[in-house]
Amino acid sequence: MRNIVTGNWKSNKLWDDAEKLMIDVATGIHESQHTDIFVAPPTPYLAALKAQSTAFVGIAGQQCSAHTEGAFTGEHTASMLKSAGAKAVLIGHSERRGTFGESDAVVEAKVHHALDAGLLAIVCCGENLEERDAGQHFEKVLTQLSHAFQNIDASRMSRVVVAYEPIWAIGTGRTASAAQAQEMHAAIRHHLVGLFDASIAESMRILYGGSCKPSNALEIFMQPDVNGGLIGGASLNASDFLAIVAASNEAATKEQQGG
Ligand code: PGA
């Protein structure tokens, strides 16, 4: 299966820097044998940066509306992202759930809109530090996914990707250990067997996010149930992002060689 590496620029970069970063990333990747690569810029730049996207580096939205078109001032729909050139969209990032109050029901609605629009839906989940310390991390994450996927037809799951992002590791410099990531990813995959079936669970990509950087990416991506990463801070620097993409391709190559 191909890995996915997605750069989430969040609310960073003014236009000139954003364009330069996109050009540096796009021109830095001439092939990507084992990894699908996306960049999720701030929405106002998305259509313009589409011009710099390539066969190897696609554009993604950082979120989409829970509504379809109509009188919803300030919102952008999944179909609009698609028509502006996006191939994928992040849904339910912890900053959306936390700072902007997105409930599980809102996340679920967004997943449906993303799939209806023909986008790849990258659905984020993750526990906070309190929940981890209380031993509630599995329950928290698996419950989020049960909600997000409760009414999705199994035939659509090939367009869905899970991103596990422990909140305590996002932007903190504190990364989950490779073993902690693998443990949660394996639990997520097992949960997907119950929600759908074994073949869907086996074929789904589960990304890790949370202070992923060139120095730790390979070890994390080498874990059997980790299929790439969602990269925040390190995606704001082209050479760091390119190094993480290279780590993903290296991990997938080694995996295919059985080592
Ligand atoms: P980080 O962010 O890599 O800066 O920790 C990850 C994310 O929030 O997607």
Q: Could you describe the 3D structure shown?
A:
With 259 residues, this protein is of the alpha/beta class. The protein has a single domain, classed as Aldolase class I (TIM Barrel, Alpha-Beta Barrel). The chain has 11 helices and 8 strands. An 8-stranded parallel β-barrel has the order 1-2-3-4-5-6-7-8, surrounded by 6 helices. Strand 7, helix 10 and strand 8 form a beta-alpha-beta unit. The longest helix is centred in the C-terminal third of the chain and has 19 residues. It is globular. The two termini are 15 Å apart. The model has no long low-confidence stretch (mean pLDDT 96). It binds 2-phosphoglycolic acid. The site of 2-phosphoglycolic acid has 13 residues, from strand 8.
What attributes does this structure have?
259 residues; alpha/beta; TIM Barrel; eight-stranded parallel barrel; 11 helices; 44% helix; globular; binds 2-phosphoglycolic acid
Order of helices and strands: EHEHEHEHHEHHEHHEHEH
CATH level-four homologous superfamily name: Aldolase class I
Structural Rg: 17 Å
Low-confidence stretches: none
Average pLDDT metric: 96
Instruction: Kindly estimate the percentage of residues that lie in beta strands according to DSSP.
Output: 15-25%
Provide the domain count. Answer: 1
**End-to-end C-alpha gap:** 15 Å
Q: How does the major sheet shape up?
A: 8 strands, parallel, barrel
Name the CATH class: Alpha Beta
Number of helices: 11
Give the spatial strand order of the biggest sheet.
1-2-3-4-5-6-7-8
The small molecules bound here are:
2-phosphoglycolic acid
Helix content estimate:
40-55%
Strand pairing plus helix content: what structural class?
Answer: alpha/beta
Overall body shape:
globular
What do we call the CATH topology? TIM Barrel
Q: Would you identify the CATH architecture?
A: Alpha-Beta Barrel
